[in-house]
């Protein structure tokens, strides 16, 4: 009963309101449906446009940014590597310059040490065993050595004057070196010793400074040039003398040709005098470049060298006299 009354009541309420128009409701539904569909289509279109824009940005814009972001670290690394290489190159150059400077300083120090040792040795030689505390010992020793060296130079000057007189009297006898030993004659050059060869013997026996060695080396070069010039003159003179003698023999020993040969011998006298002049000048300039102690030592070494040549000749002669 309650249910029927409830249904009744419900129907009665529905009767109170206006009857519903099903077509209008369907029309409204259809209109709303079309409107909603249009709105859905419009929203879908906007979503698709947004997605397409995002896709385009993703496909075009994002890779460029990625490339740029990726290229930035690579460029930075390259710049850093280039800077490191340049810094390493400059460091190597500085190290090389520093090593060269150290080597130059080392050589300079070694050179100074050698000069100091040579100076000490020369001072020890000049002292001659005299106590250095004695006043004026060095000056007195040098004065005495200067006097002895000058006496030796005067002796050689007198010797060269005598040789000039002998050359004018008999130049062939002088050039042949009859008064010398056989071993000395092996080294004979235009009536005497070769100045350059004698310097080569003396220089190693002397404790020289660098400047002294340089000066004596230049003197050796000058001596060799003078010797070459005189040797060429000697060869030419021998050739012309041989031609004059041969021409005189072909013509039956005519007086004119013999006089020409005699004139060539006079030229030989002048050649010997020039060779002695070179020897004397070489000796004087050598002693001038040395200290008194060195000059005295050089003259002593010269005498010892010549004496050893004589001793060698004597030993050879005694060997020949021994029975087989």
From TrEMBL:
Q: Which UniProt keywords apply?
A: Activator, Coiled coil, DNA-binding, Nucleus, Transcription, Transcription regulation
Location in the cell reads:
Nucleus
- List, alphabetically, the PROSITE patterns matched: BZIP (PS50217), BZIP_BASIC (PS00036), DOG1 (PS51806)
Q: Name one GO biological process term.
A: DNA-templated transcription
- BZIP domain location is 74-118
Which Gene Ontology cellular component terms are annotated? nucleus
Record GO terms (molecular function):
DNA-binding transcription factor activity; sequence-specific DNA binding
Outline the extent of the DOG1 domain. 91-319
The UniProt entry, under InterPro entries, shows: bZIP, bZIP_sf, TGA_domain
Q: Where do the coiled-coil regions begin and end?
A: 95-122
Please, which domain of life does this record's source organism belong to? Answer: Eukaryota
- Region ranges (Disordered): 53-74
Compositionally biased region (Basic and acidic residues): 64-74
Annotated family: Belongs to the bZIP family.
- Supply the name of the protein: Uncharacterized protein
This protein's species is: Ambrosia artemisiifolia (Common ragweed)
